[in-house]
Amino acid sequence: MITIAQQTHINTLIDFVDQNYGDKGTCVLGYRMYVNGKLLCPQPWQGSLSCERFYKLAKNYLIDEGIDPSNITIDYGRID
Known about the structure:
80 residues, alpha+beta, three-stranded antiparallel sheet, 3 strands
């Protein structure tokens, strides 16, 4: 389960990627990350590269926070 503090940090990661990278990459729909089977957040951008960058940061953060990597899954969606 994600704590409120962890979710708050995830939101700052979204802001960080948005401000420093923007929405880049191929338009993808349904690119989502799940933690313990629950959706982490709505897809932040349509760009595949932006989503990939964010999900990598989020996954590393959650692993550092003690979340078992096997409980983190990514649905790569489909190219629009």
